[in-house]
Amino acid sequence: MHKFGGSSLADAGRIRHVGELMLAADEPRHAVVVSAMHGVTDAFIAIGDAAACGDDWQAALANLRQRHVEAAEALLEDSHATRQWLDQQFQELDDVLRAIALLRQPGHAALARIHGMGEILSSHLLHACLRERGGDYARLDAREVLRVRHGELGAIVDWDASAARLAEWRQANPQLRVVVTGFIASDADGQPMVLGRNGSDFSAAIFASLFDADEVHIWTDVDGVLSADPRLVPEAVSLPALSYQEACELAYFGAKVIHPQTMTPAMARGLPLLIRNTFNPGFAGTRIDAEGGADSDASGPVKGLTLNSALALVSLEGAGLIGVPGTAERVFAALHAARISVVMISQGSSEHSICTVVREPDSARAHAVLLDAFSRELASGQVQGVQVVDGICVLAAVGDRMAGTPGVAAQLFGALARARVNIRAIAQGASERNISVAIATSEATRALRAAHAAFWLSPQTIALAVIGPGNVGAALLDQLQAALPRLRRDANLDLRLRALATSSKTWHCEFRGSEEWRVRMQAEPVTTDLAALGTHLLDTHMPHAVIVDCSASNTVAEHYPAWLAAGIHVITPNKQAGAGPLERYSAIREARTHGGARFRYEATVGAGLPVISTLRDLLDTGDELIAIDGILSGTLAWLFNKFDGSTPFSELVREAHALGYTEPDPRDDLSGMDVARKLVILAREAGLSLSLADVQVQGLVPDTLRDADRDAFMAGLAALDAPMQAALDAARAKGCVLRYVARLEANGNAKVTLQELPNDHAFAHLRLTDNCVQFTTHRYRDNPLVVQGPGAGPDVTAAGVFSDLLRLASSLGARL
Ligand code: ADP
Ligand code: ASP
Ligand code: MG
What is the per-residue pLDDT across 293-332, written as a single tens digit (0 to 9) for each? Predict the structure, then answer.
């Protein structure tokens, strides 16, 4: 049995393709169930509604007629007979619609006749095409054979009557190959009926049973059942195997690729269903059977995710409900009486509230009938109220192996929490095959993607914005570019740069590593608006958003609290926030706690060296800080390593400046403020409320040059030489060297000073721009813990930022 959906039959070319596929099939016997051409059922439904309301339907009908006539002409060598047949069909339809327009109250049968017309037409076209190409096919109008009646859960097949009618039909139509109309049937009186939207999947399973088929192939426009709706999760993957139960749950919860009722007839006879792609016929697609690929270990506990939208949450709350039997029954009886179907139910064991999810168009009625049903309790105050929240989606995770696997719910809830999705209600069936959560529609796509990545169904996707593509920013972008393919392949991590901002211009981009970002930056820039940057990132609906601030700007730091509160993670080598005003620092910490976002700034001290994380580890494991001593400036380290009296100090400053080791204005280094800032960051990390003003700083810039402009300062540098030479001589006389050292004590004493250190001191033997930090703690009392290595330069700083980013990604679920 083969079934082709509307997308496989959208036009003459596609119908021809289907014909060729079937003619090439090597089964001696087969039946082909068809849907209407794509969009035709929708159009017929609209036409029926328009006629019933007295609106214009003629134009739409003429359109449909035209579309089918054109398809026939393009499809067939000799389309004459088919065109005549089409004329006759559309003439009859015209008559029916006129009658409906006149009476305004169409019966079920008249509407079903119109709604199911698409299948009559498409089956005729395919049949004519097959016959013209030499195929010996019969055509079966399912209304002649298939007998069904209405049931609460959809159409119910009268198997005996249908089998008897098919046997009769077979006598007149003994061909081994048959084209069958999907979707349509008739009732016991022979009046037309339809099987519900997407019902031709169901038709295929029914006819497979009636024709005693061995397999059902459902041909559609995607590679089988995917792990999620590909329109919402582009990374969704094809599932090789599903059990009937898994397929039912996925279909029931909205995976449109297969109609939920399809499984019942197949299950009854153990018929395998194969979901295949008409446009990729060589691909195996998805096999649905009793085993569902149970022996293969390839899949995790969750096979797929679905999203059901346009729902509403209706809940009844009241202290008077506690321990009162029959409340739930009354809720459901009231909804049932109003013919409102309940999508999801959840009740806490406190029995204080009962929460149901219904379709959004039913929510106002649900509200009214519950108010009515509980009017007495509402009046007496036993029930506080009935709440309705529209704009709800239900996200469901489905998989047989969820049963008995602990932690699946935690994985789902964790992923949603990290993606800042608020869960309104939860339900898990006792079969443990499905966990459903009700969430706001505005968060649904992000939630679906986050959950999809959390179950390893697709990579963890993170939207990134980089501010300040200067030295460090540029190095970071280059490092990212080089690492992206490997991260995607090995770590299941997909980092997407969505914005690149300088202080004036922002480039919105979609950078995935293969493009040259310097070129991308030429794309249409918009004026930088730091507040809008956060919104832009969140609007991408990616599960996670990160802003990397590689600027040295205080203005950018001003935005951290807002970004963090909105759930955007912030990573930075910028010292402004860490060493800036205490109120802002507290606001950042507060926002971080509230928004659930992380703030990481390892590269603010010691560039790529693990200075802050080491301090955190010490403190988090319960150690107590006694003191931190450090060489925290790569620039000053280099200067004093080099300064041995053979070259004047001013010469060395000029050389360092030329080599790019200093800030553009070397006074930023020589003033000691940069070191003081780092010390403040470390002090705050250690829990001390320190500010820059609390640090005792011995600057090296002579008073005369402090307020000069930069050129004047560079010109007057020689003023440094005499005092520095004197300091060096004095140190030498004691067998010491000069080093610019920062020291923080547990009591909050903090100072950065030029010191004379003995020749055998650890700080006396550092190389080039090495930083060195000594942590003296309770555990490391006698011999401090030392972190040492190159502490300046764009590459190592960028690497520090990058490792913060990866640590964050790993905490969000990447496999690092
Ligand atoms: P047909 O016309 O063949 O019946 P449908 O449009 O009814 O096709 O169903 C196929 C479509 O279902 C796909 O194109 C896809 O966009 C959508 N879809 C939604 N969820 C899923 C899923 N989990 N797996 C595959 N497709 C899905
Ligand atoms: N043509 C019908 C519909 O659009 C049935 C189907 O496509 O399965 O609902
Ligand atoms: Mg379908």
Answer: 776 555 678 899 999 999 999 999 887 777 777 788 899 9
Cα-Cα-Cα-Cα dihedral sign, residues 200, 205, 211, 215: positive
Please give the residue that has the higher pLDDT: either 455 or 805.
805
The one-letter code for the residue type at 73 is E
- Report the SS3 class of residue 468: coil
Band of the pLDDT at 516, cuts 50, 70, 90? confident
Distance 227 CA to ligand 2 centre (A): 22
Largest CA distance in the chain: 119
pLDDT of residue 121: 98
How far is 496 from 508, CA to CA, in rounded Å?
11
The total number of residues written for the chain in this structure: 816
Rg (CA), the chain: 36
Tokens encoding 108:
């079920």
* DSSP of 369-428: HHHHHTHHHHHHTSS-EEEEEEEEEEEEEE-GGGTT-TTHHHHHHHHHHHTTPPEEEEEE
The number of the ligand 2 atom at minimal distance from the alpha carbon of 118 is 1
d(CA 251, CA 225): 10
Q: Report phi then psi at 582, rounded to 5.
A: -60, -35
**Cα–Cα distance measured from residue 3 to residue 275, given in angstroms and rounded to the nearest whole number:** 10
The bound ligand whose nearest atom lies closest to the alpha carbon of 239 is: 1
Nearest atom, ligand 1, residue 306 CA: 23
Question: Mean pLDDT across the stretch 442-452?
Answer: 93
Report the mean per-residue pLDDT for the chain: 92
**Distance between CA atoms of residues 21 and 2, nearest Å:** 11
Lowest average pLDDT, out of 426-430, 500-504, 636-640, goes to 426-430
pLDDT band at 401 (very low <50, low <70, confident <90, very high): confident
Q: How far, in Å, CA of 199 to CA of 44, rounded?
A: 15
Q: What is the pLDDT of residue 769?
A: 87
Identify the residue whose C-alpha is closest to ligand 1 atom 19.
Answer: 229
Contact between 278 and 352 under an 8 Å Cβ cutoff? The reply is no
Tokens of 134: 């030499």
Tell the residue nearest (CA) to atom 7 of ligand 2.
Answer: 198
Closest CA to 56 of 97, 105, 89: 97
pLDDT in tens, 703-719: 888 899 988 999 999 99
The atom number, within ligand 2, closest to the CA of 6 reads 7
Mean pLDDT on 126-137: 97
- Is ligand 1 within 6 A of the CB of residue 222? yes
What confidence category does residue 353 fall into, taking pLDDT thresholds of 50, 70 and 90? confident
Closest CA relative to residue 17, chosen from 130, 162, 172, 147: 130
β-bridge mates for residue 243, sequence order: 289
CA distance 359 to 378: 24
The catalytic site residues sit at 678
Indicate the Cα dihedral angle 121, 126, 132, 136, nearest 10°: -110
Nearest residue (CA) to ligand 1, atom 10: 257
Tokens 């008559």 sit on residue: 95
Q: Tell me, what DSSP letter sits at residue 494?
A: E
Using the structure block, give the residue that is written with the tokens 């003439």: 91
Ligand 2 binding pocket, CB closer than 6 Å = 5-6, 35-36, 41, 118, 182-183, 197-201
Q: For 556-566, how does the pLDDT look when each residue is reduced to its tens digit (9 = 90+)?
A: 999 999 999 99
Q: Which of 265, 258, 187 is nearest to 222 (CA)?
A: 258
Q: What is the mean pLDDT of residues 53-80?
A: 97
Backbone angles phi, psi at 774, to 5 degrees: -110, 125
- With helix as H, strand as E and coil as C, how does 301-361 read? CCCEEEEEEEEEEEEEECHHHCCCCCHHHHHHHHHHHCCCCEEEEEECCCCCEEEEEEEHH
Q: Which bound ligand lies closest to the C-alpha atom of 197?
A: 2
Q: How many other C-beta atoms lie within 10 A of the C-beta of residue 300? A: 15
